[in-house]
Structure formats: C-alpha cells, structure tokens
Amino acid sequence: MKRRDFLSIGVAALATPALVTSASAQQLSLGEVSGYLNRLVTAQGGFTQINGDGTLSTGQIYIKRPGRIRFEYNAPDNSLMIAGGGQVAIFDPRSNTAPDRYPLNQTPLSIILEQNVDLGRRRMVTGHTSDGTSTTVTAQDPDHPEYGNIQLVFTANPVELRQWVVTDDTGGQTTVILNDVVPGAGIAESKFNIVSEMRRRGFE
Q1: Contact 91, 79 (CB under 8 A)
Q2: Per-residue pLDDT reduced to its tens digit, 154-166
Q3: Residue 41: which residues within 8 A CB-CB, separation 6 or more?
C-alpha cells in the first residue's frame, strides 16, 4: 500500500446508537457533527476499500482517538498502515525495507483524529449540504488545503457517519465502507505502536 493510497482512505458507516438527534431529514449542524466525532473515542470493524482504479481491498480497521488509527489489509495485499505518535507508517510485506513514514498532520485523516474536532474553524469546511436524508460535510486543513480534503456523509436519528471519501492532492478519490463496526470497543495501545511493529518485523 503506497502513501498516496493512504492519503485517499475513506471510511463509512461508523455508528454510535446512543447519540440521537432530531429527524433524519434535518440537516445536522457543524456543532452536532463535531460533537459526534469527539464522542467517538474508539471503534473497530471490517472494511471494504474502493480504490481509485476501481479495485477492492478488504481488512480490519481500529480507531482510537486522538491520533491513532490502524488498517490491516487482507490477502493478497497484506499491507498494514498505522498512525500513532503523530506519525504514519506503511508496512509492505513484499518489501525488505523499513516502512515509509511521514507526519499524520499531512493527511486529511488528521482532521477527524484531532483531540478536539472543531468543524466550525474558519476555512476548514468547504461544503455543508443536505439532500433531505443525509448531511454532507467537506473539510480540509485550513492552513494546508493542498493536502486534500475529506468528505463526510452523515444520517441522523441516531447520528451515523455513513461515508467518508478522501480526495488527495492530485484529485484522486478513495472510499472505504465499514461493516460490523463496534464503537467504544477496547483496543490495546500496542495496535498503534509503530516502533514495536518495526521491531517485530526486524527493522530495529
């Protein structure tokens, strides 16, 4: 899995049943969306990723906010991507070299993995619409729009993040659909330890 593929990751169907808003036809405010994301501390489940070239990848995803996410890709890919400690690492089982590493804050994922998600910040949200059944919010790093953006599609009653599409710095898009997601799941810190994973694979 290359860096560009990671920058284009999307997520769908993160649900927190306990969070209830008004009727699903109502457009969710940026405050409601920010509050939902801030309450989503941990989650895990399966995913199917639709890549930019139309191919599919599957695997398991683990989220632990703030700042931590892990994608375990199934065969034939078998790649692993970890974000933790402010860094992102991509492990390619077909390579004998150490993982590619770069700052998390250079990816659109950093927007929703922040300690305090505030979509009301100036110049962060570039789109906020409703089609009567869902609310779509498009967000970017206001200081670095060149990093791309993330499009979040929510339904209400209860609030659910149904789709997450990331557009990278070249305009490429990737979507990931989650399944069997468990919000509030207990996830070990070791899942997000890049150095430990490198040692386990013999790179340190």
Answers
A1: yes
A2: 888 888 877 788 8
A3: 64, 65, 184
Using CA atoms, how far apart are residues 111 and 19, in angstroms rounded to an integer? 21
CB 1 within 8 A of CB 92: yes
CA 143 to chain centre: 20
Q: How far is the C-alpha of 148 from the C-alpha of 197, rounded, in Å?
A: 28
DSSP state of 194: H
pLDDT tens digits, 45-65: 999 888 888 999 999 999 999
Q: What is the longest distance spanned by two Cα atoms in the chain?
A: 53
Question: What's the whole-model pTM score?
Answer: 0.84
Residue written as tokens 């993040």?
A: 161
Residue 140 tokens read as: 């970017």
- Among candidates 162, 163, 159, which has minimal Cα distance to 32? 159
